[in-house]
Amino acid sequence: MPIDATKPYDDQNIFAKILRDDIPSRRVYEDDFAIAFHDINPQAPTHILVIPRGRYVSWDDFSARATEAEIAGFVRAVGHVARAAGLVAPGYRLLANTGLDAHQEVPHLHVHLFAGKPLGPMLVR
Question: What is the pTM of this model?
Answer without folding.
Answer: 0.94
